[in-house]
Amino acid sequence: MTIDISRRNFIKLGTFFGISVLIGRLPDAHALEIHSGPSSTDWISPDGKVRYRWDALNKVTGQKNFARDFRAQDLPGWPKKQAHAFFIKATQADRTFEGVDLSILGPDMQPDRLILQEDLTGDGVAVPQPEGLPTDFYGQNFLVPKGHTPPLLGQPVALLIYHDFDKFEAAKRSLRFAEGVVKYGAETGPKPPSNYGAARYVRIGGDTPIASSVYSPMQDAVIWGAFDGNKPVWPPESPTGVFVPASVMTLHRGGGGVRDPKAVARETYEPMRRGMNAAADIEKAIEAARQDKNKLVLDRHGFSQSIDASAMEPDNGNAWYDAKTHTLHIITAAQSPYEVARVAALMVKNNKRFPVKTIKLLTGTTVGYGTKDHSIFPFYAIAACFYGGGLPVRLANDRYEQFQLGIKRHSIEMDVTIVADRKSGKFEIIKGFYNLNGGGRANFSFSVAQVAATAAQSIYYFPKSDLATIALATPAVEAGSMRGYGTIQAMSITELLVDEVAADLGIDQIELRKLNAMQAGFENTQGAQPLGELNNIEMLDLAAKHPLWVNRAKAKADFDKANPGKMYGVGFAQVQKDYGTGADTSALTLEFDANGKVRMRHCVQEIGTGATTAQQVIVRDMLGKAPDAVEFGVAEFPELPVVSNWSPYTTTQKQQDEFQKNPHWVPFMLPAMSASNSAYFIGFGTRQAAKFLFENSLWPAARAIWSEGPAGGQISSGFMTVNDLRVVEGGIGGGGMETLSFERVAKKAHAMGLVTGVSLHCFSRWEWATATFDVPTIGPIKVAADVLSVRYGDGAAPKLKKRMTTGGYDFIKRSSVNFPSVQRNNAGVTTYAPAACIVELNVNSFTGEVEIMRHHNLLNTGKVIVPELVSGQLQGGLAMGIGHALMEELPLYADGPGNGTWNFNRYTLPRGKDVAVWNQTAEYLAPLSDSSPTKGIGEVVMVPVVAATVNAITHAIGKRFYELPVTPEKIKKALGQ
C-alpha cells in the first residue's frame, strides 16, 4: 500500500497557545474518504439509491483504515522503528502506592524506560485541565504518585517503554496477572475525588398539557445541589448556604467555559427556592394520594448495571516527539479530532523540557459508542512519546486492558414513584431519584446524570414532576459518554413501572400508554415543547394491532401446553430518546466547477454510522449530483474565519449579546461525533449549503437556459418559480421544463458569474441561529447559519473576484444575527426520536434461561436518508439492548474489571442465537411530509427492547424485575428455586 502524507494533506487547525496545530486524515490509496481528491461514484446509482456504503470497499478488502492499523513505518517522515509501551495498573484502591517491583522480568526483559508520576511531574507533563470542562475532568495525575491512594481501580501507576517488540510482548504477558509487582503501603480506605454534582428538575404544569408551566426549569431554574458526604443537599432557606459546583456549568458533551458558581448561585437562588417549594408541594400531593383510594401510588427501586462498550477498536494512540523540530506527531482514535488537538495544545503549551511548536494530528475511522468522546487515552499516548528516546511510542489497549481502563456505561440506582388516577388512568406525578456511580474519574458523569433525570419521563406527560439526580465519585472504573447516555438506564425502569401500573389498574398496557403519551405542544418535564409531532399515538396504535400483541393470550396458552417446562411471554415498551447536545454545530464547504464536478469538505467524522455516506446522499438529493471529491473530518475551514469562547452552555445572555457584535464569533466551533447528531444536526448544515446553491446558483442558471431562444424560450409560456424546481433523474427539471444535466447548469452558472461555492457554519441551542447576509450577486438573504462565505463563478466581474481573499472565498459579514437565548439551555432537550418494541420469548422454568423468539420494532425516523444505514443501526442497537437486559454486567469494585482479569471469556455478549437474528421485523413511521426532518436514531434503537424483554419475562412467569440484567439466577430465585 502506498500512502502520502504531505503538508498539503494536513489542514491547519489554527494556533492554540502559540502552538501551530495541523490536522489530517490517514491517506489510503483505497479509502479516499480520508483525504481530499477524486472519488468514485459507483457506490450510488443514477437514481440516487445507495448501492453500498461509500467507505465499504476499503473495509471489506482489509485496508488500513483505523488508527490502530498504523505503525511508524507506514507513515512517511516518521522513524521506521517503532517503540511500544504498556501500563502497570493498581488493582487496589484503598492503600497507598509505594512503587513497582519488576524483578519478575529478570535482567533480559527490563524496559528501556520506566516512567513514574514523579518523572512526569518533574518534566512538567501534566494532565490537561481544559477551560470549560469540570475540574479534574481527566483526573489529577496520569499515574498515581508514590504515597497516594489510587482514586480508582485500574489507575495506571507506571509506564513501561520498550524499543524491541518481542521483549515488550514477553514482558507484558509476564506481568499481566503477576502479584507483588505493585507495592502497596498503608491502608487508607477509598480516596476518590469529590462528588461530581447534584441537580433537580421540578415542574408543576398549567391547567392543560399545552398551557405554560406554573414552575419549570425552562422558565425558572434548574435546582443545583451540594453534598453532605454522599447525600445531596438542596438550597436551604438562607442563600449563603447555596453551593453550585463548577461541574454544573459545563456542557453536556463537548468543551466550554466555566462561569463563576457563586455568581450562578446568586442569580438563581430565588427561582431555585421557589423550585424547592414546588417540590414540597409535590411531596404533599404524593402523601395525599397515598390516603386516597381513588389514586394509585407505585414506589419502586430500580438498578441498571455497569457495562463495557465492547467497541471493535480498543483505545489506542501512536505518538512521536521530534525534538529537532519541536513537532508532536499523533495518530489516535477519536470521535472529536478538533477537541483532541485543542486539548493536546493546552497540555504541552508551557513544557520547557519538551517544547512543542507544531502538532500534527492524524485520525482514522473509528467506533467507540461514545467512549472515544473526550477520552483521556490520546493524552496518555502524548505523555508516553516524550520518553521514547526519539522513537514513536505506540500505546494500544488489548482487551484485558480495555476492560480495565476503557470508559464504561454508568451504573445507576433509582427510586421512582408514579401517581395515577384509578378512574381515568391518567398519570399525575412522577418523582425520581437517580444515583449515578461515576467512578474515579469525572468525565461526563454529571452530565449523564442530568440526562438520565430529564429522560425519565419516557413518552409520557406528567402534570407534576420532581426528578433529582446525583453523580457520585467512587473507586469504580471510569464511566462516561457511552451510547445511551443515561437514558437507557432511566427510561427502562420507567417503562417497567408503567406496565405494573397498567396491571394494577386493569388497563391494557398499550391503552394506558395512549392515555398518557406526549403529543404535539405538550411540555416535557423541563417545561420545553419538543420539536413537532412525535407520533407516539400513531406508533402505539400500530403496536396494538400487531399479531404478536393481539394474539398473546392464546399464543401463551398454546405454547405453554405444547412445551412443558417452558413459559411463553410477550412484552412491549415504547420510549423517546433525545438526540443532540444543546450546542450542536456543523460546518462544510460545498462547491462545483465549470465542468460540473462537485467538491465537498465536511466536519463530519466517520465512527461507523455511515455518516460520510449520508452527507453525500443529502447533497445528491438536493443538487442532483453526488460529490466527485470529498474530504471528511475537516477541522479547519480557511473560508470561515470564526472565533469562539467555547462556552455555549455557560455564556451569559449579556456576554452573548456583546460577543455577537463580532461577525466572526460563534458560540461553539465544531462538533464531536456523539449524541446521534449526524443525521439531523450535522446534516442540517449540509442541507443549508445545498439549499443555498440550489436556490441561488442552479435556479438562476437553469432559468437562463430555459429562457434562451426566440420570444423568451421554453419557459416564457408558463409561470415557474424556484418552488417548482426539482431534482429529477438525469439532472434538474420541474415545471414541465426540459431536463438539464447538472454539468450544463454548472457551466451556465460559472459563465454568469453566480455563486458556485458556499461555506457555512451552523449552531443550534435547541433552536437554530439565523443571520442576514448581503451577498453581492444575491442581495440581503436570511440563512439558518451564523457564518457564511461564498465563491463566485469563472465569469464573475473582476471586482467580485478580488473579494475572494478568505481561503479563496468572499467572507460575507452578517448584517444581523439571532442566536438562541441562553435560557434555552434549561430545556434539557427538545428533539426526540420515538421507538417501540414487541418481544416474544420463552423462559425455561428449570434453568431460568430466556430464549428470545422474535421481536418487532417500530421507529419514527423522520425522513430517511439511507434506509440500509437505519436498518444497520437498528440491528446493532437491538443486540446491545438485549445484552443489557439479559446478560452484560460488570461488578463495580474489587471483583470488577479494574482488577485486570476481565475479558470476553468472563463477559458475555449476545450472539446471533440470543437476539432472534432471523426473526426480527421492523416498520418505520412515514414522515408527516416531504419536508419532515431526519431524526437521530443511533441511540434510541437499543432502548425499548430492554424493558420490552423484561416485561415479556413478567408475562411469561408472573414475576416482576427492576434490577438489570435479568439473569437465569434471578429468574430461578423469583420462581422459588
From TrEMBL:
Record domain Aldehyde oxidase/xanthine dehydrogenase first molybdopterin binding: where: 281-517
Keywords from the UniProt entry: Iron, Iron-sulfur, Metal-binding
Organism this protein belongs to: Desulfovibrio intestinalis
UniProt lineage: Bacteria, Pseudomonadati, Thermodesulfobacteriota, Desulfovibrionia, Desulfovibrionales
An annotated Gene Ontology molecular function: oxidoreductase activity
Protein name: CO/xanthine dehydrogenase Mo-binding subunit
Record bears the keyword Iron-sulfur: yes
Domain of life (superkingdom): Bacteria
PANTHER family the record matches: ALDEHYDE OXIDOREDUCTASE MOLYBDENUM-BINDING SUBUNIT PAOC, XANTHINE DEHYDROGENASE
